[in-house]
Design goal:
Length: about 450
């Protein structure tokens, strides 16, 4: 009797949760499991193991594909601990429900109705703007297959370079290659070198494959899957694909020029490099602001103006429905065209020959303002409990919220309360787009009446 009552209660609880809530619980559960695994003595060298805060922060940074760290990934974790981190990165990048549902399909070959609903809700944010429940199986396998193929190709290129160019043992080189390929594609920024990619600042055979993984992961799965189908037919591309590719290209170019202009003569970053090394390093830094978090030069030694420009690029982030964070390049584009339309005195907002629905205007404004509120509020709170100043604190907050992972070097020195705030920001940054997208679909209520119009004075 007790068993049947507990099952019944569990079933009622499951029915009470809508898919958006299930996704949040899934990420939170994965965070707790990852933290528990990193607390095991086998996860870290030496006696005592990791502290609960270090384990929690590292697991949150990995599952939220951020890359901020409070301890050195290369020396503070054993191969087991590093394996846990890379597994959390992969799960977080694909999406917990995407990973779990795909695993269930492989094992039991079928989907229950509840799992199908949850997977459909998350699939809408990782694979397509609209997807029916009958398409879930095909879409999920397509997302996972795309990710694994890109990671395998990048890992192969890195393995060859580390084996042939640096004389690494083939097995060690393979581990380095797989770890950095997964971390790169998922825009996580975790590295197995204490100085990230600074030791390879002038090596295009290491930097460019990782950059390719970061860019592809940052474009988003809808763009990747559409390019796979329609690569030779750009006229068939959707507005989303065209906007993501256009804005991504513009930001990569502007970011490269910006880093070269501000750091060209800085002896602590680009100043001592050759012309080719400077161009490569400037491009790498521009790519990594796409929310990847690797760095090939010392971020803490950059000029303050470079930090501020990096703040802006990190806040924008990458493409939607992928592994990148930030408010997304599509949100930036929509806001730009809203302003452009208003300045021209037009009524409809048109983007690349298509008209945007008004609901998209509201969503873009809401996402941008909520993100701005989270960043401003968290920065003010952190500045009251630590003394690193506005520039470094703002950089750290945006890096956490946009799930970037770049740091001016203060993460490990922050007090525990500040580190916990960064954990919350990473969680918000990774889950915000998912929960907002699903909540807009599942909680939409239709008002049966309209209030009379009246407008305040604007401007």
């Amino acid at each position: 009797m007790t068993s049947s009552r507990s099952v019944s209660a569990s079933a009622r609880f499951g029915r009470a949760l809508h898919p958006a809530q299930i996704i949040v619980l899934a990420f939170f559960t994965a965070l707790l499991i990852g933290s528990g695994l990193l607390l095991l003595p086998i996860a870290s060298p030496g006696p005592g193991g990791a502290t609960p805060l270090v384990a929690l922060f590292t697991a949150a940074s990995a599952i939220c594909v951020t890359g901020l760290v409070v301890v050195d990934t290369a020396s503070a974790w054993t191969p087991f601990g590093q394996g846990v981190i890379v597994a959390l990165i992969q799960i977080g990048g694909l999406g917990v429900m995407t990973f779990a549902t795909t695993l269930g399909l492989v094992v039991v070959r079928r989907l229950g109705m509840r799992s199908r609903l949850s997977a459909t809700a998350e699939a809408r944010t990782v694979g397509a703007s609209t997807v029916g429940m009958g398409d879930v199986r095909r879409l999920l396998f397509g997302v996972v297959r795309t990710a694994l193929i890109i990671e395998a190709v990048v890992a192969l290129a890195l393995w060859l370079r580390w084996t042939i160019g640096y004389g690494e043992h083939p097995l060690h080189a393979l581990w380095l290659a797989v770890f950095h390929a997964v971390s790169g594609f998922n825009n996580a920024g975790f590295a197995l070198f204490s100085d990230s990619l600074m030791g390879f600042v002038a090596d295009p055979w290491i930097c460019l494959p990782i950059c390719a993984a970061v860019i592809l992961g940052g474009l988003g799965f809808p763009v990747l899957m559409e390019l796979r189908r329609e690569l030779g037919r750009p006229l068939h591309w959707t507005m989303n694909t065209r906007v993501v590719l256009l804005v991504t290209g513009v930001l990569l170019a502007l970011g490269t020029v910006f880093f070269l202009a501000t750091e060209w003569e800085n002896a602590a970053t680009l100043g001592t490099l050759s012309l080719g090394g400077k161009l490569l390093a400037g491009f790498v830094q521009s790519v990594m602001t796409r929310t990847a978090g690797f760095n090939s030069v010392d971020t803490s030694a950059m000029h303050e103006v470079t930090w501020f420009g990096t703040d802006i690029l990190m806040f924008i982030g990458g493409g939607p429905a992928g592994t990148a964070g930030g408010i997304k390049v599509t949100t930036l584009a929509v806001l730009f065209f809203i302003i452009y339309t208003e300045v021209r005195g037009e009524v409809a907002v048109n983007v690349l020959g298509k008209r945007l629905p008004r609901s998209t205007h509201r969503q873009a404004i809401a996402v941008a303002l909520l993100a701005l509120a989270a960043v401003v509020g968290s920065t003010m709170v952190l500045m009251t409990i630590e003394g690193f100043g506005l520039d470094r604190t703002l950089f750290e907050v945006i890096s956490a919220f946009a799930t970037v992972g770049l740091s001016t070097g203060i993460t490990a020195d922050l007090p525990p309360a500040a580190q916990l705030i960064l954990v919350v920001l990473m969680f918000m940054g990774r889950l915000g787009p998912i929960t907002l997208a699903t909540a807009l679909v599942l909680r939409r209520r239709r008002r049966l009446f309209e209030l009379p119009k009246e407008r305040p004075i604007i401007g």
